[in-house]
UniProtKB/TrEMBL annotation:
It comes from the Archaea. Gene3D superfamilies: 3.40.50.12500. Residues 1-20 are annotated as: Disordered. It comes from Haloarchaeobius amylolyticus. Pfam families: Amdase. InterPro entries: Iso_Racemase_Enz_sf (IPR053714), MaiA/AMDase (IPR026286). This is Aspartate/glutamate racemase family protein.
Length: 242
């Protein structure tokens, strides 16, 4: 962040993602601009996610040419695909390539849940069952109890991008039910338009609700030095960054 209060955020996203950039933009002041670099991905499958990660460092390097203040790898399953530790390695790789701090969505989600002191969580996704299981394994390895995980079975990322915040809200309410035994709910996928549903869901469920883009935005604000400029929804953005 410059002395004038201006900032530049670098966002590494799958090529078929149409949600991350507008959701980030909606909760940033005009003085903080968002600049995207894309990695090829049409379907959210293990093979395509694995191939996509090979493009991550190059995308971050190109964002570094724009003198961004920080870089986010905005893909949840793409940053947890290879299990515990891959998310941290990815952050290091991108930081080295761009020459600025970097965050990866999977690691950002863990940091957000830890900040909320969440232990027992429910997870809602648009994914197929194989990716749901990889996500469950990752979150459990990170120390969380996954009470339930509910997926929509979608692979085409454009189909995921067509979902609305109302779709997310309905899925969460149907999947979670009584949230009294939960510490938080996590809505996964940076292409799932769900950030606008957070405040209403929190009021209905009585527990914090985080989304992939919400956690990533909160985290890059922390490392990029513009956390005070964020106007994100829900309990997470009311917390002090760790």
């Amino acid at each position: 962040m410059t002395d004038e209060g201006r900032g530049q955020l670098g966002l590494v996203v799958p090529s078929s993602n149409t949600t991350a950039e507008p959701e980030f933009r909606a909760h940033l002041p005009d003085s903080v601009t968002v600049h995207g670099a894309r990695m090829a991905l049409e379907s959210v499958t293990v093979d395509e996610l694995d191939a996509m990660s090979d493009d991550a460092a190059r995308a971050a390097e190109l964002l570094g040419h724009a003198d961004v203040d920080a870089v986010a790898y905005a893909c949840t399953t793409g940053s947890l695909l290879h299990g515990p530790g891959f998310d941290a390695e990815l952050e290091e790789r991108l930081a080295d390539a761009a020459g600025v701090p970097a965050v990866a969505t999977a690691r950002s989600v863990v940091r957000a849940l830890e900040t909320l002191d969440a232990e027992r969580i429910a997870v809602v996704t648009p994914y197929t069952s194989d990716l749901d299981e990889k996500e469950r394994d990752f979150l459990e390895a990170a120390g969380f109890e996954v009470a339930s995980i509910d997926g929509r079975g979608l692979a085409a990322n454009t189909a995921i991008g067509e979902l609305t915040p109302d779709d997310a809200s309905r899925q969460v309410l149907a999947a979670v039910g009584d949230a009294e035994d939960l510490d938080a709910v996590f809505v996964s996928c940076t292409n799932y338009r769900s950030l606008a549903a957070v405040e209403d869901l929190e009021s209905k469920l009585g527990v914090p609700v985080i989304t992939s883009n919400g956690a990533t935005l909160w985290d890059i604000g922390r490392v990029g030095g513009f956390e005070r400029d964020l106007d994100g929804p829900g309990t997470l953005f009311e917390c002090d960054s760790q």
